[in-house]
Design goal:
3 helices; 5-stranded mixed sheet; mainly beta; 8% helix; 200 residues; 34% strand
Protein backbone atom coordinates (compact mmCIF):
# COMPACT_ATOMS: atom_id res chain seq x y z
CA UNK A 1 0.00 0.00 0.00
CA UNK A 2 1.32 3.44 -0.91
CA UNK A 3 1.39 5.98 1.87
CA UNK A 4 1.15 9.68 1.08
CA UNK A 5 3.44 11.99 3.01
CA UNK A 6 1.30 13.35 5.83
CA UNK A 7 2.97 16.74 5.64
CA UNK A 8 1.56 17.17 2.15
CA UNK A 9 -2.00 16.05 2.82
CA UNK A 10 -4.78 17.45 4.97
CA UNK A 11 -7.55 15.00 5.92
CA UNK A 12 -10.90 15.92 7.48
CA UNK A 13 -14.38 14.50 7.99
CA UNK A 14 -17.30 16.64 6.74
CA UNK A 15 -20.70 17.38 8.18
CA UNK A 16 -23.65 17.05 6.87
CA UNK A 17 -29.33 13.25 -15.86
CA UNK A 18 -30.24 11.25 -18.35
CA UNK A 19 -28.02 8.18 -17.94
CA UNK A 20 -27.02 6.37 -14.75
CA UNK A 21 -23.88 4.22 -14.78
CA UNK A 22 -23.35 2.21 -11.61
CA UNK A 23 -20.01 0.86 -10.37
CA UNK A 24 -21.28 0.04 -6.88
CA UNK A 25 -24.44 -1.44 -5.41
CA UNK A 26 -23.66 -0.02 -1.97
CA UNK A 27 -25.78 2.71 -0.37
CA UNK A 28 -24.57 6.28 -0.73
CA UNK A 29 -22.25 7.60 1.97
CA UNK A 30 -23.77 10.49 3.98
CA UNK A 31 -21.87 13.77 3.66
CA UNK A 32 -21.10 13.56 7.40
CA UNK A 33 -18.98 10.47 6.74
CA UNK A 34 -17.10 11.67 3.65
CA UNK A 35 -13.34 11.97 3.81
CA UNK A 36 -11.42 14.94 2.42
CA UNK A 37 -7.84 14.74 1.15
CA UNK A 38 -5.96 17.78 -0.13
CA UNK A 39 -2.37 18.13 -1.17
CA UNK A 40 -2.24 21.46 0.66
CA UNK A 41 -4.33 23.27 3.28
CA UNK A 42 -5.52 25.87 0.76
CA UNK A 43 -9.21 25.57 -0.13
CA UNK A 44 -10.13 27.71 -3.16
CA UNK A 45 -13.31 29.76 -3.09
CA UNK A 46 -14.87 29.77 -6.55
CA UNK A 47 -18.17 31.17 -7.78
CA UNK A 48 -20.48 29.69 -10.38
CA UNK A 49 -21.19 33.17 -11.72
CA UNK A 50 -17.63 33.79 -12.91
CA UNK A 51 -16.40 30.21 -13.25
CA UNK A 52 -14.38 29.41 -16.38
CA UNK A 53 -13.07 26.00 -17.45
CA UNK A 54 -10.26 26.32 -19.99
CA UNK A 55 -9.67 23.51 -22.48
CA UNK A 56 -6.43 23.96 -24.41
CA UNK A 57 -3.24 22.35 -25.68
CA UNK A 58 -3.31 19.87 -28.54
CA UNK A 59 -6.85 20.72 -29.66
CA UNK A 60 -8.27 22.29 -32.82
CA UNK A 61 -10.78 24.46 -30.99
CA UNK A 62 -9.70 25.72 -27.55
CA UNK A 63 -12.65 26.31 -25.23
CA UNK A 64 -13.57 28.65 -22.39
CA UNK A 65 -16.60 27.08 -20.72
CA UNK A 66 -18.79 28.74 -18.12
CA UNK A 67 -20.72 26.84 -15.47
CA UNK A 68 -23.87 27.41 -17.50
CA UNK A 69 -22.17 26.00 -20.59
CA UNK A 70 -21.48 22.79 -18.68
CA UNK A 71 -25.04 22.64 -17.34
CA UNK A 72 -26.36 22.86 -20.91
CA UNK A 73 -24.22 19.99 -22.20
CA UNK A 74 -25.34 16.34 -22.20
CA UNK A 75 -25.00 14.86 -18.72
CA UNK A 76 -24.74 11.45 -17.10
CA UNK A 77 -24.88 10.22 -13.52
CA UNK A 78 -22.33 7.72 -12.23
CA UNK A 79 -22.52 5.71 -9.00
CA UNK A 80 -18.94 5.28 -7.90
CA UNK A 81 -16.73 4.46 -4.92
CA UNK A 82 -13.99 7.07 -4.56
CA UNK A 83 -11.01 5.79 -2.55
CA UNK A 84 -7.78 7.32 -1.30
CA UNK A 85 -4.74 5.27 -2.25
CA UNK A 86 -3.13 5.92 1.14
CA UNK A 87 -5.93 4.16 3.06
CA UNK A 88 -8.50 2.64 0.74
CA UNK A 89 -10.49 0.93 3.53
CA UNK A 90 -11.20 3.90 5.78
CA UNK A 91 -10.89 6.73 3.26
CA UNK A 92 -13.65 5.93 0.81
CA UNK A 93 -17.15 7.10 -0.08
CA UNK A 94 -19.98 5.74 -2.22
CA UNK A 95 -21.19 8.63 -4.33
CA UNK A 96 -23.51 9.45 -7.22
CA UNK A 97 -21.84 12.05 -9.42
CA UNK A 98 -23.58 14.04 -12.17
CA UNK A 99 -21.82 15.95 -14.91
CA UNK A 100 -20.59 16.08 -18.47
CA UNK A 101 -18.63 13.19 -19.96
CA UNK A 102 -15.08 14.47 -20.49
CA UNK A 103 -15.22 12.70 -23.85
CA UNK A 104 -17.96 15.10 -24.99
CA UNK A 105 -15.90 18.16 -24.06
CA UNK A 106 -12.78 16.79 -25.74
CA UNK A 107 -14.73 16.02 -28.89
CA UNK A 108 -16.06 19.58 -28.91
CA UNK A 109 -12.49 20.84 -28.64
CA UNK A 110 -11.21 18.47 -31.34
CA UNK A 111 -8.26 16.49 -29.98
CA UNK A 112 -5.30 16.45 -32.36
CA UNK A 113 -3.96 13.06 -33.54
CA UNK A 114 -0.62 13.47 -31.75
CA UNK A 115 -2.20 13.86 -28.27
CA UNK A 116 -1.42 11.18 -25.68
CA UNK A 117 -2.52 12.62 -22.32
CA UNK A 118 -4.98 14.93 -20.64
CA UNK A 119 -3.77 17.00 -17.68
CA UNK A 120 -6.28 18.44 -15.23
CA UNK A 121 -5.54 21.51 -13.12
CA UNK A 122 -7.22 22.56 -9.89
CA UNK A 123 -7.54 26.14 -8.65
CA UNK A 124 -5.35 25.12 -5.69
CA UNK A 125 -2.42 24.36 -8.03
CA UNK A 126 -2.97 20.59 -8.01
CA UNK A 127 -2.47 18.58 -11.21
CA UNK A 128 -3.25 15.03 -12.30
CA UNK A 129 -2.78 13.31 -15.63
CA UNK A 130 -4.83 10.77 -17.54
CA UNK A 131 -3.89 8.72 -20.58
CA UNK A 132 -6.06 9.86 -23.48
CA UNK A 133 -7.84 6.49 -23.63
CA UNK A 134 -8.99 6.89 -20.02
CA UNK A 135 -10.08 10.47 -20.57
CA UNK A 136 -12.22 9.27 -23.49
CA UNK A 137 -14.05 6.55 -21.57
CA UNK A 138 -17.80 7.13 -21.40
CA UNK A 139 -17.95 7.48 -17.61
CA UNK A 140 -14.98 9.79 -17.01
CA UNK A 141 -16.89 12.88 -15.95
CA UNK A 142 -16.52 16.59 -15.33
CA UNK A 143 -18.88 16.65 -12.35
CA UNK A 144 -20.90 19.56 -10.98
CA UNK A 145 -23.31 17.67 -8.72
CA UNK A 146 -23.06 14.93 -6.11
CA UNK A 147 -26.00 12.94 -4.75
CA UNK A 148 -28.33 15.37 -6.54
CA UNK A 149 -26.82 18.51 -4.97
CA UNK A 150 -24.09 21.00 -5.94
CA UNK A 151 -20.63 19.90 -4.87
CA UNK A 152 -19.65 20.94 -1.33
CA UNK A 153 -16.81 23.47 -1.25
CA UNK A 154 -14.32 21.03 0.30
CA UNK A 155 -15.17 18.50 -2.39
CA UNK A 156 -14.29 20.72 -5.33
CA UNK A 157 -17.16 23.18 -5.79
CA UNK A 158 -18.21 24.08 -8.37
CA UNK A 159 -16.61 21.45 -10.69
CA UNK A 160 -14.30 18.46 -10.24
CA UNK A 161 -13.05 15.42 -12.13
CA UNK A 162 -14.51 11.94 -11.62
CA UNK A 163 -12.49 8.95 -12.83
CA UNK A 164 -14.28 5.69 -11.91
CA UNK A 165 -12.17 2.61 -11.15
CA UNK A 166 -9.04 4.74 -10.60
CA UNK A 167 -7.60 6.07 -7.35
CA UNK A 168 -8.84 9.31 -5.85
CA UNK A 169 -5.73 11.34 -6.72
CA UNK A 170 -7.05 11.48 -10.30
CA UNK A 171 -10.25 13.24 -9.17
CA UNK A 172 -8.95 16.82 -9.46
CA UNK A 173 -11.04 19.23 -7.38
CA UNK A 174 -11.85 22.90 -8.17
CA UNK A 175 -11.22 22.04 -11.82
CA UNK A 176 -10.23 25.10 -13.88
CA UNK A 177 -8.19 23.73 -16.78
CA UNK A 178 -8.07 20.68 -19.02
CA UNK A 179 -4.86 20.56 -21.03
CA UNK A 180 -4.37 18.06 -23.86
CA UNK A 181 -0.72 17.26 -24.49
CA UNK A 182 1.57 15.21 -26.70
CA UNK A 183 4.11 15.02 -23.85
CA UNK A 184 4.37 12.37 -21.12
CA UNK A 185 3.42 14.87 -18.43
CA UNK A 186 3.17 13.57 -14.85
CA UNK A 187 0.77 15.08 -12.34
CA UNK A 188 1.53 16.00 -8.74
CA UNK A 189 1.37 12.52 -7.21
CA UNK A 190 2.36 10.69 -10.39
CA UNK A 191 5.62 12.65 -10.44
CA UNK A 192 6.25 11.48 -6.86
CA UNK A 193 6.05 7.80 -7.71
CA UNK A 194 2.35 7.02 -7.64
CA UNK A 195 1.14 4.90 -10.60
CA UNK A 196 0.57 6.85 -13.79
CA UNK A 197 -2.07 4.29 -14.69
CA UNK A 198 -3.96 4.64 -11.41
CA UNK A 199 -6.23 1.65 -11.81
CA UNK A 200 -7.51 0.24 -8.50
Amino acid sequence: MMLAATSLIAIWKLGTSDILISHTNKSLTPFSAWYVVQYSKYTPTLSRSNYILTVDGQVENPLQLTYEDLMNMPSISVKDTIQCVSNSYFLQANVEWTGVPLKYILNEAGVKPNAIKVVTFGADGYTADLPLYKAMEDDTVVAYMVDGKPLPELHGYPVRMVVPRWWGYCYTKWLVRIHVTDKNYLGYWESRGYPDVARK
